[in-house]
Design a protein that fits this description.
By secondary structure, this protein is α+β, with helices and mostly antiparallel strands. It has helices at 14-22, 44-49, 80-83, 90-98, 122-129, 131-145, 159-175, 177-183, 198-207, 219-226, 231-234, 249-255, and strands at residues 6-8, 24-32, 38-43, 64-66, 152-157, 184-190. Helices cover 40% and strands 13% of the residues.
Amino acid sequence: MLRSLVGSEMCIRDRALSALLAQDSEVAMEMQDRDGSSHMATSAFVQHMVLDPQTSRDPPGFKVRAKPGLAGCEYLSDSPLMRAGTVIMGVITDMLRTHGYTEWDGTSGSIVGASYDWRMMPSQLEARDGFFSTMMEQVESMVATDPSRRAAVVIGFSLGCRIAKYFLHFCLAHRGRQWCDLHLAHFIPLGGPFLGSVQLLRAVLVDGTFAPLDMLFNESQMLTILRSVPVGRYLQPTGDWEDGLDCPFTFLREVIGGLG
């Protein structure tokens, strides 16, 4: 299961998150763009979300990481009142649990929740977090402990589809075709922006309108966040597939199979 949901390493929950959103920091953080110009990020939540435009890493004094496991893939809010309206992969995981699936705990289980930092491009996720190497090891261990040695089904949602596709090619490059045949059965993309996102491009260049985040932040805050994160470049609808291991979707169908 691949779905992005960034949460504080300190496990910010709903009340703490609300406090961050409501807080107007008295000390603004200065962000410097690549061209040398600077702007101020005044919202406390924005300060946590932006990346340093020079390094694409956490600004000094801030560290935000994806909420690990299925908790980072199912719902945007843990509040019972908000849960139904913020569902992501929760409907799928709830259904799988009724059929006996359990979350992988390192030694047993049948579902891995691969939450990731949606702000970064795939190569940066691997360089900073070892994301794809870890996920590959999890799949390998999960298949090895399955009594029937069943291969994994990879499910991605939205940007997670692009991340999942990159993962499949990462496995092919680092483990080879035989490993992929033994450990990867199918890839199920749900609403993946395989040709890029015009909506995100418009948000970055024009007005910051990008649902559902624009319900929480004003135009200035949205532009500050979106223009600081490198994933905006990754999702530009350029038609250029030469991005590391991220090969065309038609090539994926030929090499990995199980989609035609």
